[in-house]
Each structure stands twice: as C-alpha cells, then as structure tokens.
Design brief:
This protein folds into three domains: 77 residues, Immunoglobulins (Immunoglobulin-like, Sandwich); 82 residues, Cadherins (Immunoglobulin-like, Sandwich); 145 residues, no CATH class. It is mainly beta and 345 residues long. The termini are far apart. The strands form six sheets. The chain has an eight-stranded antiparallel β-barrel. Strands 21, 22, 23, 27 and 28 form a five-stranded antiparallel β-sheet that branches. Strands 1-2-5-4 form a four-stranded antiparallel β-sheet, with no helix packed on it. 7% of the residues lie in helices and 56% in strands. It contains one helix and 29 strands. It comes from Bacteroides caecicola. Keywords: Signal. This is BACON domain-containing protein.
C-alpha cells in the first residue's frame, strides 16, 4: 500500500512538471527586429539602408527588379534605380532569419512635372513684356528654340519667366517654336508676338477667299476689344460689331442691323447660317470666329472665319441677313455670305 501511494505521488509530480513546461513554451522571443531605416527615394532613385538586430543569420530579398538589396553585417543596403514613369511605384524588402520574417515597404516618386504652362501658344502684344509660369520637375529641364534677338527666358526657383522685346513698327508678326524636355516629357510651344490692332480697311471675300464681295472698315469703340464693322459693296451695307478675344476675332449673332428697305416696319437681323443643312440661328451665344493670322512676309493680316463649335448640332458657315416679322426672324432674307475671308489693305 505504501508503494502504491509513492507511485501515485510520483505520477502527480510528473504531470505537474509537464504542465509547467507547456506554459513556458508559450513565451517566445522575437529573434529579428528592424532597428532603423533610411528609405527616401525620389524619381532619381539612389541608395538607402535598413538596420536590424538578429540572433541568427539574415537574408534579404526584394519584390521588384528596380530595387536591389545586399546584406552587410547588420545592415541591408537598398539600391533603387531611376523611375522612368510618371506614376509612383512601390515594393517590399523581406528580411528572414529562418525563425522570423519581416517586410519593409519601399516607395519611390514618379516623374513629376508641375507646370502652369498648359497652353501651347504664348502670345505677346506689340509692346512686348513678360509672362511667368510655375515649372518644377524632378529631372533637369532643357528649353530650346528661343529666338534671342527678341525673346529670352530665365528659370529660377521653379519659376519660368519669358520676356519679349517691343515689336518693330514695320512688322505685324513674328514667332518661334520652343521645345521643353524634362524626364519623359516633351512639350512644344509657339511663342508669338503680333499687332492685334485690326482697325482699318479690309478686302472681303467669300468662298474661302475665291470671290471678292466688297470691303469693310473696322473701327474701335469705347468698349475694349469691341469693334464696329461697316461693310461697303455687300448685299446689305449696315454696320455690326465684332470682338477680339485673345487672338481670335469673333462675330456674335442676333444683332439687329436696321430696317428692311422694302418694308421699313421690319428689320434685318444678322443670323448664323449652316449652308450644308439649310439652318439659321440668331442666338447670341453662337459665334463665327477667325484666328488673327498673317501673310508669310508679315505685311498683311488675314482673318479666315470658321465654325468654333458654339452651335450644337450645326455648323456656322457664314452670315445670313434675315428679315424679321413681328420681331422674329422669318427665315427669308436678303443674302448669305459663305466661308468668309478678310485681308487687311
């Protein structure tokens, strides 16, 4: 009986010991820890480091070809190549010592171009002057094509300033084509200096310049950029108004031109005419526009009028002098002028 009691005590002590051993196995220590990292990469790439502490040998692997790693003691040297894309990119570096594993994210900026030079045409008036734009890139910036006899530039602290000299009196127009190259970006600009004064007498044509129909006198008004047009030799020689907006001359419709000669109780209204589809509109929102251009020698100013997309579902191909009835255009009229071209005398 005493031997049986001793055996039972021994078994109880063994079970208690095994239970204590299981509790201790639940407490494990981390054998791999990242101490510090220096991993800031812009578009140009470069090198960085990861410092770690490990009781066991460590291997490092990268998740992308553009990021390479090498273990040297307790340091992982990280090398990132140049990012040729506009988008940023990321990957991870994985450290393992057989017992533990940890991942460190790697982030690289894309090819950033921050600029306010969003228009392909830069225009100066006859007085010249300067304009400035924000221009910031992660790459070197190369600007070529400036005609330094009249237009120059400076680029300082992310600001591009373009300067133009005064236009000579005997010249109406000059231009140069400039190319901006930075990283993967290539952007082309046309720098133009012009005399946008359209006052004076013009020879007027229809059918794309093939048929002369008279002349018109353009005079300035008290309103800036608004001009009075007085035609001579057209089907209806009544004044109307045009506007210079930027480098375009714009005609708006719905203008009442005066009484209809055969019935003074009614008026003539300037309407937009879609000759192809036989449509008219007197909406003041519809425009007929001509960019200010010049002859090859720069001696004459040329206006070639065309549709600019303001008449939804139709095409502005010219003017129509329409007769009103009770104040509303009837669709009948005096004459249509199609595909107009004006050339300064």
């Amino acid at each position: 009986m005493k031997k049986l009691y001793s055996l039972l005590m021994l078994l109880t002590m063994c079970v208690a010991f095994i239970g204590c051993s299981d509790d201790n196995d639940d407490v494990t220590e981390q054998t791999l820890q990242v101490v510090s990292s220096d991993l800031n990469f812009d578009v140009n790439g470069g090198t960085g480091t990861i410092e770690f502490d490990s009781a066991l040998p460590v291997t490092a692997t990268s998740g992308a070809e553009w990021c390479t790693v090498a273990v040297n003691g307790n340091t992982v040297n990280v090398t990132v190549s140049v990012n040729p894309r506009m988008e940023s990119r990321s990957t991870v570096v994985t450290l393992t010592n057989g017992a533990d594993e940890t991942q460190i994210p790697i982030y690289q900026e894309g090819d950033i171009l921050d600029t306010t030079m969003t228009q392909s045409n830069i225009t100066f008036d006859i007085e010249g002057g300067e304009v400035s734009y924000r221009l910031i890139s992660n790459w070197d910036i190369e600007l070529t094509g400036f005609d330094e006899s009249w237009v120059t530039y400076t680029l300082e602290n992310g600001t591009l300033t373009i300067r133009a000299e005064q236009l000579p009196e005997n010249m109406k127009y000059r231009s140069c084509n400039v190319k901006l190259v930075t990283g993967i970006h290539t952007m082309n600009y046309t720098i133009t200096q012009m005399n946008r004064d359209i006052t004076g007498t013009w020879n007027c044509y229809i059918n794309g310049g093939a048929t002369a129909y008279g002349t018109c006198l353009i005079e300035a008004t008290e309103t800036a950029n608004r001009y009075k047009v007085t035609p001579t030799g057209s089907a209806y020689d009544a004044p109307y108004y045009i506007t210079v907006r930027g480098t375009d001359v714009v005609v708006n419709f719905g203008q009442v031109l005066g009484p209809y000669p055969d019935n003074p109780a009614e008026n003539i209204v300037l309407c937009a005419y879609d000759n192809t589809h036989g449509q008219l509109t007197w909406s003041t929102d519809v425009e007929y526009a001509a960019p200010i251009s010049f002859s090859e020698d720069g001696s004459q100013t040329i206006l070639r009028f065309a549709d600019n997309g303001t008449w939804s579902g139709a095409i502005v191909e010219g003017y129509y002098y329409s007769i009103t009835s009770g104040g509303t255009p009837t669709g009948s009229g005096i004459y249509a002028l199609i595909n107009m071209v004006w050339i300064s005398q």
